[in-house]
Amino acid sequence: MDRHTPLPAAIALSxxxxxxxxxxxxxxxxxxLSVAPGEIFGIVGRSGAGKSTLIRCVNLLERxxxxxxxxxxxxxxxxxxxxxxxARRRIGMVFQHFNLHTRRTVAENVAFPLEIAxxxxxxxxxxxxxxxxxxxxxxxxxxxxxxxxxxxKQRVGIARALASDPEILLCDEATSALDPETTQExxxxxxxxxxxxxxxxxxxxxxxxxVKAICDRVAVMEAGRVxxxxxxxxxxxxxxxxxxxxxxxxxxxxxxxPSTLARLPAPRAGEVRRLVQVVFAGPAxxxxxxxxxxxxxxIDINIVSGRVDEIAGEPFGVMALAAYGAPERLEAxxxxxxxLGLTLTEIEP
Length: 349
Ligand SMILES: Nc1ncnc2c1ncn2[C@@H]1O[C@H](COP(=O)(O)OP(=O)(O)OP(=O)(O)O)[C@@H](O)[C@H]1O
Hints:
GO terms for molecular function: ATP binding. The protein has helices at residues 51-58, 81-89, 106-116, 121-134, 150-162, 180-197, 208-214, 232-237, 242-252, 258-263, 286-297, 327-339; strands at 11-19, 26-35, 40-45, 66-71, 74-75, 91-95, 168-172, 200-205, 217-222, 225-231, 272-281, 300-311, 314-325, 343-346. The chain has 2 domains: 11-250, 3-Layer(aba) Sandwich (Rossmann fold); 255-346, ACT domain (Alpha-Beta Plaits).
């Protein structure tokens, strides 16, 4: 648990291990993380990293071989069947492929878990009248899934997850089947619902853009392990692990196109050229940094690209620089820039 997490956690996983086949690789290898109440927590990783296995351990769709699963103060692994069913009603789940009944209308899909739980018809109707407007589907209550767009289908999936008034929402690649615009709409809806319904959200995704759009904190997984976690702003502006850097680069960019590189002047005799990405957050003024570095260290700096972006309302800038000069001068200039709190990463051309 890191110092940003207030206690008690809504979800606390510790030392989770899972191996599907004897002698096979560990799908989960000693995973420990905790999600604070009201937080949107993202888990990002490539295919096979263990994200689905991890999220399914929260509601015990998957049982870990070892470790502890605490949800809303309950030790999930100690519950009997009836208590587990009750605990699962406090945990809604949204799926990538919506998992809708094609022969049921929107209203019937949303009411399905209520029907299973034996909730009387009148109470079901009352619940539908409350939930459908929350997801913007009142006008579609009698439509069948085939008559809906992907975004509308996912709204049904979300409404169904909300039917049992959960305190936790698990989202398993909830936007991966959607186009970019619809993805943003669904992410905005999830963020809005978090605020209105006091939800805690744990989501898994392979897209860092999803994390950037709505998460407060993120854990990066690779080969069954959490390799880095922290506040999204810090992970984006100061990624520590090479895999995290690659994920972050997908969103904020760091590579210089070969055509741009080809147009850069070659270094003069006795000098070298180094390409670096500089990320600055907070009040650091880049123009001053660039001109000061160039003046005080006797180097030349060519700004190859630059832009300002925003994560969770906090602005940050990212620039690609080509710096020319004697190797030791460049090194000293970079060290000075780092001492100002800028994050410098060498760009592989
Ligand atoms: N039911 C299963 N039986 C056997 N192996 C499994 C099963 N589920 C997952 N695995 C294996 O566990 C590892 C982690 O898979 P998992 O699905 O959790 O990863 P993921 O990060 O969610 O990837 P994806 O996005 O592709 O689902 C993989 O090696 C996968 O092949």
